[in-house]
Design a protein that fits this description.
Layout: H1 3-18, E1 25-33, H2 49-52, E2 76-80, E3 94-99, E4 102-104, E5 107-111, E6 116-120, E7 126-130, E8 138-142, E9 148-151, E10 157-163, E11 171-177, E12 182-184, E13 190-196, E14 199-207, E15 211-219, E16 224-226, E17 229-231
Parallel strand pairs: 1-16, 1-17, 3-6, 5-11
Antiparallel strand pairs: 1-13, 2-12, 2-14, 3-4, 6-9, 7-8, 7-10, 10-11, 14-15
Length: 236
């Protein structure tokens, strides 16, 4: 093997490493709510005493969850559009648990081809009715003795509703994504999307009642970018 070939091979390795995580960047930001804060009533579970008995205090409505300074939880923030590179699908499943007659978590994302594990921790009759439009919708019964079931989605699809027809207050929202660059905000309204290759991207923030917003960011090699979002009630 010639020294010239060896040098070229070494250069190729260095270039490959240069495109790796050490040269990737982050996008961070905060999602906030502006406008009058609605007085949301707790979730009423009296229609099923077995559900109501699982709670010793009122169950907060998850339609709008705010923190200090009206920071907004449960917003899905993602990189919209293609991202250069290969991103293996995690072997670990994403879990939706039916617990306390609620879906946990309320908002989640997973990758195309990643396992979604549906868990029934209640020991009650539920069903999982996925109202996807790009992927094939399904309605899966989860009787008391069926504690787990698995499913997968084969196509990318933005956020769609998953509901329980037995308990109409139960709702979750699921997104299926081609890349791993997405995050759900916590009560502090913050999100962090790590490991983005350098480039310019469209960042999308979604909320179940307040719609979608987008922003453009440019991520430098090993750098960081910020995109903040502010949601308001729709005008009448």
């Amino acid at each position: 093997m010639s020294k010239h070939f060896t040098a070229l091979t070494g250069l190729a390795v260095l270039l490959t490493l240069a495109a790796g995580p050490a040269f990737a960047g982050d996008v961070t930001g905060t999602v906030t709510y502006t406008g009058k804060v609605p007085n949301l009533k707790p979730i009423a579970m009296n229609a099923d005493p077995a559900c109501a008995s699982k709670h010793s205090s009122p169950v907060a409505n998850e339609v709008l969850v705010l923190g200090a300074g009206n920071t907004m939880a449960l917003a899905m923030v993602r990189v919209k559009g293609p991202v250069a590179g290969s991103f293996p699908v995690p072997a670990a499943p994403v879990v939706i648990d039916q617990k306390g007659c609620q879906y946990h978590p309320h908002v989640l994302g997973l990758r195309i081809g990643q396992t979604l594990k549906l868990r029934n921790s209640d020991g009650l009759l539920h069903n999982v009715h996925a109202l996807s439009k790009v992927n094939t919708p399904f309605n899966m019964a989860m009787p008391a003795n069926r504690t787990e079931a698995d499913t997968k989605f084969g196509k990318e699809e933005g956020m769609f509703l998953v509901k329980c027809d037995v308990h109409p207050w139960m709702a979750a929202y699921v997104g299926v994504f081609a890349n791993p660059f997405f995050a759900v905000t916590g009560t502090d309204g913050k999100y962090k999307i790590s490991g983005l290759p350098p480039g310019t991207y469209e960042i999308e923030a979604w909320h179940e009642k307040l719609g979608v917003q987008t922003a453009k960011v440019t991520v430098a090699a090993g750098g960081a970018a910020a995109a903040n979002f502010s949601f308001a009630p729709p005008s009448k």
